[in-house]
Design goal:
By secondary structure, the chain is α/β, with parallel strands linked by helices. The protein is built from 13 helices and seven strands. It has a five-stranded parallel β-sheet with strand order 1-2-3-7-6, sandwiched between helices. A two-stranded antiparallel sheet has the order 4-5. The site of thiamine diphosphate (TPP) has 17 residues, from strand 4. Magnesium ion binds next to strand 4.
């Protein structure tokens, strides 16, 4: 990460007053030359940080028409990038769930219905910025360049998996893409995200951190810690809550008595905004403005993206046991991909023919990635005991030998001593 003189130092706590309706200041030019992943996009005029109880920020109607005077007029390349990423996330998700059902991977946390919230927010970052995900932001790692094959290696937990098969599926890690590995422990990534952003500022790095959480995580201790530290120390981060209405079987009505989740930002003294999470243009614009504030030294923003988890919490869950299908059907009508495709078609940027060709291309890409990943064998036996101690202690070596003997095997290819 490059050093810069442009970054403001920590403001004393007494000055850290978040004004919910303060207009975000324009971003300073970055000192470090960014390698952007998404095509460069102009920052729209940023009127979008609003107090949440004045409403939901929404630019696209359900039929894809844009509200009068509200089109952020993003460049064509950015619009197509957003759409193509959403379609890729959806197809990848569909196929991975199928692999899980066929017993080819052990677990999967589906994203269906939440594609706009992830893709729109990640696209608003520069590539030098960091992402601290929760369960449903795996698409962000792939947007940052994690190959589909590598992602599937992780889901299988095979020998080519960066985590050496030690993590649950969906816990991708991708340091080069500034994507931090998620923690299963709900909410812990918020303290990490806020702390990493504070560290970046102390080092003088011109970096913003985007930390994700679900609605359920707003009840976790780390949420309160993270929000408080972020606001008091004006950490250059954006905390982005995907309110998908459910935390496994707990509905939002049982999660919080607050009118909105966004307004929790007010209690901590930080600007907050409630955005339609199924409207990729709104998500992108809101996050872009929040990132600009953070980069400018104006502190964190709390974003609540209102969306819906259309499938189970994970491949181990059966949502029909606790929720009404009519609710799911109602949210299907607000589908983020259909809505954005309708917008692109109205603007003449997309067509049926392009849709067919693109979907075919993505399907092939996912097929090839599955085939490549499934060629990899399991992790080496020694990985059961490596990477904890600098020198593997004798008792662990003995245990490994014993375990393998129980399976009627010797230590993998006679690789001991390690
Ligand atoms: C500290 C902690 N408590 C409970 C759990 C069990 N758990 C796993 S996911 C989950 C619900 C998370 O809901 P939410 O934050 O809304 O995210 P979503 O799954 O909807 O994306 C719970 C309670 C956990 N992993 N960690
Ligand atoms: Mg949730």
């Amino acid at each position: 990460m490059a050093k810069t003189k442009n970054v403001k130092r920590a403001a004393p706590a007494a000055k850290a007053k978040g004004k919910p309706n303060a207009k975000p200041a324009a971003a300073k030019p970055p000192a470090a030359k960014a390698k952007t992943v998404a095509p460069a996009a102009t920052v729209p005029p940023a009127p979008l940080i609003l107090p949440s109880n004045q409403g939901l920020v929404r630019l696209l109607e359900d039929d894809g028409t844009v509200q009068k005077g509200k089109d952020p007029n993003l460049p064509e390349a950015t619009l197509l990038f957003l759409y193509e990423q959403m379609v890729q996330v959806r197809e990848f998700d569909r196929r991975m769930l199928m692999l899980q059902r066929q017993g080819r991977i052990g677990f999967y946390g589906p994203i269906l219905g939440q594609e706009a919230a992830t893709v729109g927010s990640v696209a608003a970052l520069e590539s030098r910025d960091w992402i601290f995900p929760a369960l449903r932001e795996g698409g962000a790692a792939m947007m940052r360049g994690l190959s589909l094959t590598e992602a599937i290696n992780q889901l299988i937990g095979n020998g080519a998996d960066r985590c050496k098969g030690r993590q649950m599926p969906c816990h991708y890690t991708f340091k080069e893409g500034h994507y931090y590995g998620m923690s299963s422990v709900i909410g812990t990534q918020l303290s990490h995200a806020v702390g990493a952003a504070m560290a970046a500022r102390i080092r003088g790095d011109d970096v913003v951190v985007l930390g994700y959480l679900g609605d359920g995580a707003t009840s976790a201790n780390d949420f309160h810690c993270g929000m408080n530290f972020a606001a008091v120390y004006r950490s250059p981060c954006v905390l982005f809550c995907q309110n998908n209405q459910w935390a496994i079987s707990v509905p939002i009505s049982k999660q919080s008595a607050s009118e909105t989740l966004a307004q929790k930002g007010k209690a901590y003294g930080m600007p907050f905004v409630r955005v339609d999470g199924n409207d990729v243009l709104a998500v992108y614009s809101v996050t872009k403005a929040a990132v600009a504030r953070a980069r400018n030294g104006d502190g964190p923003t709390f974003v609540e993206a209102v969306t819906y988890r259309r499938l189970g919490h994970s491949s181990s869950d059966d949502p029909t046991r606790y929720r009404d299908e009519a609710e799911v059907k109602a949210w299907e009508k607000k589908d983020p991909v259909d809505r954005f495709r309708a917008y692109l078609q109205k603007r003449g940027l997309w067509s049926e023919a392009k849709e067919v060709a693109f979907k075919e291309q993505i399907a092939l890409r996912v097929n090839d990635a599955i085939a490549a990943a499934e060629k990899n064998g399991p992790p080496a036996d020694e990985t059961l005991v490596t990477d904890v101690y600098a020198q593997v202690p004798q008792q662990l070596k003995d245990q490994l030998t014993e375990v393998l003997a129980l399976e009627g095997r010797g230590v993998n290819q006679g690789a001991f001593p390690l």
